[in-house]
Amino acid sequence: MPIITIANQKGGVGKTTTAITIAHGLALLGKEVLVIDLDPQGQCATLLGMKQEPGIFGILIQELPLKTWTRYTNREHLWLIPGNNKSALAATIMSVTSTTISKLKDILRPVLRSGLQYVIVDTAPSVGDLQAQGLYAADHILIPTACDFASSQGVVKLIQTMSILAEEHYWTGTLIGILPTFYDGQTRETKATLEDLNANFPNILPPIHRATILRECMANGKTIFELAPRDRAAEEYQTIIKYIQKVTR
């Protein structure tokens, strides 16, 4: 069961949309999938039309069993441990108490034998204990990045963080890919950014075009596969899902 963490140290790059879309896409293929929301904004629940709850606070700080905060999404094969603004408090407490970086990974170990086939972890863009927990727990990391200069700098910083985790904490995960988002083939900036990404980083995946429908998905509490399954954005994410299946076998 691979644990895939979705991360970037820059916000506004389509991170949560990517996490939920990939998770639901895998579930539609019959895979048992659990999403864990480490972001204090709690938008995984919002995108799925569910209530935000302090799931990760309960698990990491109160040390309650995973099943206590695991919610069925009313989508076959798809489960969620929701987050809310209390996740920020969890990060503060972990920092003050010097919580071991492997805590989330250790908690997830029993899940490896539970029948789940994928765990998708959505992280906050801010550097800190919660993001570090999500990165360290990962077998694979996927980095969404908007096609602009500031977002590509977030990629650089995250890859540096991954190197530190490997060197200082013996993290053994891999970079599954860098996913360009908000791509617009009509603008010079996005074209130039995509060229720079391909020139400077490995594993650049096919881009996700800028699409109003993806914003409408969050407003409606539905995924792209529910709201507009034939839209170009749905087809582009399907390509990414097939790639993930291939490289995580």
How would you describe the overall organization of this protein?
- The chain has a single domain (3-247), classed as P-loop containing nucleotide triphosphate hydrolases (Rossmann fold).
- The chain is built from 12 helices and 7 strands.
- It has helices at residues 15-28, 43-47, 55-60, 66-69, 86-96, 103-108, 129-137, 149-169, 188-200, 212-220, 224-227, 232-247; strands at residues 3-6, 33-37, 71-75, 78-81, 118-122, 140-146, 174-181.
- Strands 3-4-2-5-1-6-7 form a 7-stranded mixed beta sheet, sandwiched between helices.
- Strand 3 and strand 4 (78-81) form a beta hairpin.
- Helix 1 crosses helix 12.
- The longest helix has 21 residues, at 149-169.
- It is globular and about 50 Å long.
- The model has no long low-confidence stretch (mean pLDDT 93).
- Give the strand tally: 7
Give the biggest beta sheet.
7 strands, mixed
Helical residue percent? 40-55%
**Chain-averaged pLDDT:** 93
Number of helices: 12
- Unreliable stretches (pLDDT < 50, length at least 5) are none
Looking at the structure, what is the overall shape? globular
Can you write the helix and strand succession as a string?
EHEHHHEEHHEHEHEHHHH
Number of domains: 1
- Report the top-level CATH class: Alpha Beta
